[in-house]
Write a structure and sequence with these properties.
It is built from 21 helices and seven strands. It is α/β, with parallel strands linked by helices and 423 residues long. It has three domains: 19-192, P-loop containing nucleotide triphosphate hydrolases (Rossmann fold), CATH 3.40.50; 197-260, Helicase, Ruva Protein, domain 3, CATH 1.10.8; 269-416, Zinc Finger, Delta Prime, domain 3 (Up-down Bundle). It has a five-stranded parallel beta sheet, covered by helices on one side. The protein is elongated, with a radius of gyration of 33 Å. The protein starts with a helix and ends with a helix. Bound molecules: zinc ion.
Length: 423
Amino acid sequence: MVLALRKEWRGSMQHYVVLSRKYRPKDLSDLIGQDVLAKSLKSCLDNKKVPHAFLFHGIRGVGKTTTARILARCLCCIGLDGTTDITSTPCGVCRSCVAMDKEQHLDIMEFDAASRTGVDDIREVIEATQYAPVLGRYKIFIIDEVHMLSKSAFNALLKTLEEPPAHVKFIFATTEVQKVPETVMSRCMTFRLHPVSPDALAKHLIGIAQKEGYALEKDASALISEESEGSVRDALSVLEQALMFSAETKVITLDNVLNMLGGATSNDVNELLILILDAKTQEALKKSEELFAKGTDPYVLFKNMQNVLYRIIVNKVNGKVAEYSLSNLLYIWQIFLKQTENIKNASFPEYVLSATVIILSKTASFPDIERLMITERTPETPTNLSKVEQILGEKITPKPDTSKELVNNILNKFPGSTAREAG
Ligand SMILES: [Zn+2]
């Protein structure tokens, strides 16, 4: 039975195309959250002022390779009659565009510098630049993760980059621009691709879910965007999992996504945080153990609790929260920041989770430092002194400075006093 199911699943997966590929933008106007870049490239293309080398840099999954391919498509489109000049809006139907869509374009070469770093690999590229284009007007070399090239490979490339044949364009992409030599950078038109804003990403995800026949709830989409930290590709792979997870209902809720990402539901997060802030150590510990046993990822749990705590702190500062002491909340926040980092790399995260819950809830039970300080400053209420005395079990009388120098200094001001005799 299991085997049969697996076979069926494999069969249905055979023609499956991942979302990031299925919905890969084909035009500059389709790029998500890269308006400045799209505008600049459009202007380059429309004014027919195209440099011979481009460099796109930015974090993973923001669309560097996608932009490189769109640019290549714009540069190679020849139009149905084969005479169209370079364009910012490729036709999509000419021989060049069709070949590009089928990933069979003979003039557009993609080279992964991460797996081919050596000088011999780059020599192949340099050699290929000598041949005239077959379909389009340009031969385009897209070199991904260009920072991975060895020093000698960069040196070999530099010569061609200085004086490339007129029909050659280079498009480099990298996640680590600081590793690209200055000599290469200075020969490229450089663009930074920004992490996509959570709002733009969330909107994009809802649109794609809709096209796939699913309803992606707003807060679920917001969570996926937040977790993806501006990377469209990461967001789409999470959405992909969410689609499979919710295949029966066709509705993706926040709790679906939380469960999938190893997080707890928002109710769980709120409950545990309040138990901590109310200094209910034992109950908080029990709740955290339950969540861990349920498969909750402590790192994700901490990040979500931090989120809620942050909102409580802001409301406290604005006078909207009466409960809890601000100094304690801020102290708890500091511990949270540190422990979230610690739990990320912990060998036994469950121990860090339990220990942190204990530390935090004990911290929450601390007296309000601000209130204590105010009381100490007010002379009318000497209750603190007596409390200290109670704790120490003895009467405390302030003592004057009786050091010999001080006494001598004072007495020396009065000629004929006993100090001189003493000195
Ligand atoms: Zn075309």
